[in-house]
Every structure is written in C-alpha cells, then in structure tokens.
Structures
1.
Amino acid sequence: MSILQTIGLSKTYGEGDVSVRALEEVSLSIETGEFVSVMGPSGSGKSTLLNILGCLDRPSAGRYLLDSVDVSQMDRAELARIRNERIGFVFQSYNLLPRTSALKNVVAPLLYSRNHGRTKDEKLAIARQAMESVGLGDRLEHQPQQLSGGQQQRVAIARAFVTDPAFILADEPTGNLDSQTGQEILSLLAGLHRQGRTILVITHSEEIAALTDRTIRLRDGRVERIVRNWSNSDTQAVDEVRNGSR
C-alpha cells in the first residue's frame, strides 16, 4: 500500500523569461514500510521534492497524496498540521531548539498536536521512552550545546518519530558527522526501518543509498531512473523508468 504518491508533480519558480522549472511531471510512489533514498546532482530537484513531500511548499501542478489524502493545495494551516502530525523531519543541521532540554525538544511535536488526546505527563513519558530508545535516557536535561553532533542527531531522530508519523523525511542526516558517528546514525535509521517505519532519505552518499530498498535518481527535475538495492546479493536489479512508469 502506498503511503505517499505523486502524480505529474511539477514546480516552477518565477515567471516568464526568468522562470525556472525545478520539477517536471514527477510521478512516484513509496510503500508503507519502505526505506527509500533520493539522489541527484545539484539542481536536480531534490530540495524542491523534499519541500513538497514535507508539506513545506506546494506544487505548481500535479497531485501529492499522503495516506490517500490529496495535500497538494491545502492552505498553510492545514499543511502545518500535516507536518506536525504526519511527517517526522531529520535535518542535516539538527534544527533543535537552543537553550531547551533534549526532552523538551522531543516532546514539542506532541505538545503542539491536538489529536493525541493525552495529558502533558503522558506526552512527557512518551518522549522519555523515545529518548531511551535512541540511547539518550541519561541526557534528558542536556541542552543541544551540551551534546555532541551525533547525540544532537539522535535527539532529532527521537523527535521525528515521537508522534508516530506516516513517514520520516531525513535530509542528509549524516552530513555534519564524522564517518563513525554517521554509521551509528545510519544504524539507528535502519533499526527504525526494521520496526516497520517508512523512511525517505535525501542524500549525496552512495553508501547511504545502498542501505535503502530503492534509490530514486533525479536529474533536471525528472526521475531519471529507480534502482532497487539488494543488500544480500552482488547483483542489482535496475529499473530504467520513464517518468510516471512506476
């Protein structure tokens, strides 16, 4: 079952002679429980696709279905609600609230949500459990500046799944980390995937892409091809696709 689907998704910035076509008729689907990577050179449309799938922007044309609901033309308030309740974000720069404890950073999405029907104490308990699950049960009251880069990213990952979102959207999650710490973060994301979570990661790293179920490669705003990654085989099955054929 598709958790998200785009149909003829296009995005144009500017008008007339200065207009730029960032995405052009991108059609793709991601199934529940998949771990998918998106790759492409600078200017390929990765950031634009991320912004639309993350409900941070709206397409100029086409449709975006999240859990079979068309969110393409929702207003700002509706998109903000979808972002908070249905999408978990992990950014390269962590995007944690400064001078705020790790626990309060993680519980924040739950406090902003109106649909969980839980008391504040119950939400704090859920956030503590999320922190413990990423190995930071002893860092609840530490502020971001008191944590290492890897620890900050673990806090960000806990925050991303604390609302039990439809999918987690990770933008270059190891970009600011050394190789060993990056591997630890990748292992954490892979563990979340094994638990059945749907994860979409934007990356420049072939190593990260190889860990995912499929890699969607963009070029010039279009889907160039989709690669199915086989972690237990020396052979890769490559699906050369025209835009919209999958």
2.
Amino acid sequence: MYNSEKAHYIAVTGIILKDGKYLIAKRAEWEPDFPGKWTVPGGKVSMTDYSHRKPDTEGGKQWYNVLEEALRREVREEVGLEIRDIGYVTNLVFIRKDNIPCMVVSLFGYAVSDDVKLNKDLSEYKWVSVEEAKKYDMIEGIAEEIEMVDNFLKTGKVPEWKSLRK
C-alpha cells in the first residue's frame, strides 16, 4: 500500500555546462507537470540505475553513485549527451499533479560534446549564460540553481538555494 508520509519519487536534474554556457530545454506542451516551461535535463531514478550492475560492497546490498548513474542515463535519453565530472548543487521537493511528492536532487556536470539530440518530451534547447537563462520562462528555481553553479565555478563554494525574486 502506498503511504505518502513515507514514499516519494526520487528524481535528478542536471545543470550541464559546455564552454561557459548552460544547457536549457523546453518541456513539451503535453507534459502533465510544467508544460511548455524551460528546464534542465532530468527525471526519475529507477532501480535499473543500479540493479543491472554488481553491488559496490561485499555484502552485495549497496550501490554507490546511483544518482550520478541516473543523471547520465537521463541526460543521454533526453538530450543525447554524455557528461563528466558530476557534482552536487541542491535538492527540493515538489508535489506532483497526482499528489505524490517528488524529491529532486540537482546536480551539475560537463558535456563531453555539444551535439544535442532532443527526445519527444522536449521541443527546443539553448546554450545560455546565467543572465540569458533568467530571461526564459523557466520552472521556478532553475535559474537560481544555474546561478549557484556559476558561483561555484567562480568561488569554489556552492551556496544554499535562495530565490532570485525579491
């Protein structure tokens, strides 16, 4: 039985960098959550993100780097890119339209190439600067996350998320 007090979907998103620009993509209009909004690649973590590989511990019941593996898969599926050097940005929870909470872990990584190939869930993409990203109709909070990564690249520190809206 589903217990919403204990169960959440877990998802990852990736702020992808290439040559000082950030990859953003527009969600298809038919998407149930955030239709037509600009975002970054990502999606739900699934058991196949670890169950197909040998466990990392001798006890056979622990896998490491599951979020990183899920992000690599999602970025490959959604925008056709391979990524490297994945790091942590922040996390959030939102309530989906079906009232199931979703924990999103936001990560960043570097694109190995810039040959983007969108899947059917996305309609457009752009490589943008931090300032350009703020001009797009993005899912709330994504522009702040991009700014956090930009700050990390300049200072070596990832600040906690704070709204750009004053």
3.
Amino acid sequence: MTTRQKASLEFASFMAAFFFVWTIRATVLYGIDESITSPTLRAVYATLIRLLLWVLPAAAFAYWLRNERPEKYLALSAVPSWRQWKSCLLATFGFLLAVTTFEVTLGGKSVSTANLAVTPPVMGLLSFLVSPLLEEVFFRGLVMKEFLFHSSPISSNTFTSLLFAAIHLPYWLSRGGFTPAMMANVLGVFLFSLIAGWLYAKSRSIWPPTLAHILNNLLSAMLLTGHGY
C-alpha cells in the first residue's frame, strides 16, 4: 500500500466512524437535547457535543495520523492577507445579498432582528459564533484539506459540500421526513458550503469561511416567514 493509499484509507475510515457516531447522536440520542428545558443549557450541551465529536477528533487526526500541530493543520493559525480578505469579504457579502434578495422577493420572507433581540446572550454566542467555528474547523479545516491532497479544488469543494449537507440529513429525516422543505434546506446548506469552500481555497485559512458562516447564521435568524408575526 502506497503512502497516498494509506492516507486515503485513514481518512475514509475516520469519516465513516464520524458519520456513524453523529447519526446516532442526531437521532437516537437527540432525546437528551429535548429533555433539557432551558434553551441556553440546551445550546451549551449541543456545543459541548460538537466540541467532543467534531473538533477533538479532528485535532487528534491531525496530531496522530498527520504528525502536525492541530492549529496549523486545521488552518486555525493561518492569517489571510489583506488582499485575500478583500476578495473573501466581497464574495461573502455578494452571497448574502443574493440569498436575501431571493428569500424576500421569491420566498415571501422579511428581514427582522426580532429573533435576535429575544435570544439569550449565551445562547446567541454559542449558536451564532462558536458553533460556526466548530463546524468550519471540521469541514473546511480537516475534510476539505484532506480532499485537496487527492483532487482539484473544485472537486474537493464539491465533495466536502455534499458531506456537509449529508451531515444534516439524519436529524432532518428523523424529525420531519423527506419533504420539499427538507430538500430546500439541503440545497441551501450545499450552496453555502460551496461558498465557504471557495473562501477556504482562496485563503487557506479557517477564518474567512467561519466569518461567512457566522453572518449566514445571523441572516437565517433574521429572515422571517411572512411578516414575522
């Protein structure tokens, strides 16, 4: 077995184990989340689970299997240049503007800060800031980086985005089944992931896609159906 083949097998095995464990957490064990009556405590619990099941395994993978410092391998220590930041910010705001225009004109939604105003501070911090970082560390910092060793940036971004959309399916399917609304959510997550992947490929840093993820989550919270009543 060649070194490249060994690396591919390690990554494939890691991802298979990850999807298996996360599927169990998002379906069978999600009753634990539902048993927590406080929204803030539920957010704390969900964040700790992501840290335990996403970030720590990614760091261990980098350290033990790739012999790299996790912060370097996962692109946490990479700082984009000002020119890279300008390109990334332009792409991010262009995407968010396109989403807003589509949702308001064709989706019948309105933009309001009402949801943000009533969100408890700790819950908002975890949901809108910490959670996006944890997800980007795993999917861009680890998954897309691994794909880039074996394929082109376009293919790597596509594969990563398919996995990013797929990781949401266990929860969505177990809660609402296969519906047009679920498929619309899958498409939206996939398209966002393509943008996040492009930002990572452009900067080779986790921070531009993380910022885009934060802003995208904030926008999602501000887009209300109808008049938001």
